[in-house]
Amino acid sequence: MERIPILKMGRYLLVSIQVDMDDRTALALQDDLTAQIVKHRAKGVLVDISSLDVVDSFIGRMLANTAAMARVLDAETVVVGMQPSVAITLVELGLSLKGVRSALNIERGMELLQSVARDTEAETADAADEE
Amino acid sequence: MAESRNDALLQVLRDNEQEILRGWLQLQERDLSLRNNLLRSGELEQQSRDFLAALRGALSAGDTDILTSEAWAPVRELMTSIARSRARQGFTPTETATFVFSLKQPLFTALRAHASGDDLAEQIWSSTLLLDSLGLLVTETYQKGREEVIARQQQELLELSTPVVQLWAGVLALPLIGTLDSARTQVVMESLLQAIVDTGSAIAIIDITGVPVVDTLVAQHLLKTVAAARLMGADCIISGIRPQIAQTIVHLGVEINDVITKATLADAFSIALQRLGLAVVRRTAKAV
């Protein structure tokens, strides 16, 4: 079975999905990713799906679930590079991936993650000040 | 029996071809006198001559099944091409059918010289049947040709009516004009999403000033487009909401709370610039 590589970049994890995902690959990715977030204490996850042409409802739900799991572990998920056809399919399937942030490309996704991280840091600092 | 009748018709056609052709052309020219600009001179004569030749060929084969038989295939092809070209050129159905029906008079004149009494009546009846079914074939093909023209125009309209324009680097606008149905929404969605990828835009403004009616279906289509753009990482702003439409949306209970809406395109554009960290400023003090 193919495994999808998870790369660490500073405080963020980069997942680039280059192959057509089947259900088992998707579940394995979920396992690996949650393990890696905990191991590296990652603050954010970038999922690049620009080379994914086809999605079904399972993969769509898997993306949403992964994002929810990452949030539980205090990491933001940004999906980047979704193809128009994939976006249309997901909307037609009724999966609007609420709670998943998205960006046009890796660069924008990284900026988004950093700005989110800054916001949370500022909030934490505020909370600390009040105390 | 049918064969012998057609044999008589064939005989008459053979013997009097020039005469029939002349009479036929005269009739057609009289009926189409106002349409001279549509047909090149000689084209009508060529078409008529070809038709008579094809008719003769088909009659000599002795088969009477006009709509399906092999022998009549050249006649059918010719009629089809004539009807199609006339549909495109803008002839009326009457004018197109006249092409066949005006053959009756010269043909019957020729038949009268050939036979008399019951024989004549029978021959006229059989040739009437023949020409009528050819006339129906022409009309039907003409109709099909017109429908093709309409379908093509619809397609063109569909493509013309969904232009995606770039207002600024990173800001797209999609001015929608006309009613949104499922087919158009699909085209709109695809062209907008493709434009987002091509230009790398983070903000898209959908302007619905030109959409006459917004019902639940149209609203749903709009929200789908917005959701798809959001999935790709672009934010959508809906602008150009007329007072009437704002009322309708609320009365219908459509949930568009997640979407930024603005009354005018200008407002939407200024929000877009703000998001990108840009501002429009006056370069010099206004001279009063």
Secondary-structure blueprint of this entry?
The complex is a heterodimer of chains A (131) and B (288).
Chain A: E1 6-9, E2 12-16, H1 23-40, E3 44-48, H2 57-72, E4 76-80, H3 84-92, E5 101-103, H4 106-130
Helix pairs in contact in A: 1-2
Chain B: H1 2-15, H2 17-31, H3 43-61, H4 73-89, H5 93-101, H6 104-114, H7 117-160, E1 165-168, E2 171-177, H8 182-199, E3 203-210, H9 216-231, E4 235-239, H10 243-252, E5 260-261, H11 265-275
Helix pairs in contact in B: 1-3, 1-7, 2-3, 2-6, 3-4, 4-7, 5-7, 6-7, 8-9
Describe the structure.
The complex is a heterodimer of chains A (131) and B (288). Chain A is of the alpha/beta class. Chain A has one domain: STAS domain (Transcription Regulator spoIIAA, 2-Layer Sandwich), CATH 3.30.750. Chain A has helices spanning 23-40, 57-72, 84-92, 106-130; strands at 6-9, 12-16, 44-48, 76-80, 101-103. Chain A has a five-stranded mixed β-sheet, with helices on both faces. In chain A, helix 1 runs parallel beside helix 2. The mean pLDDT of chain A is 88. Chain B has 288 residues and is of the alpha/beta class. Chain B has two domains: 2-158, Globins (Globin-like, Orthogonal Bundle); 165-275, STAS domain (Transcription Regulator spoIIAA, 2-Layer Sandwich), CATH 3.30.750. The longest helix of chain B is centred in the middle third of the chain and has 44 residues, at 117-160. Chain B starts with a helix and ends in a 13-residue tail after the last helix. Chains A and B meet through helix 3 of A and helix 8 and helix 9 of B.
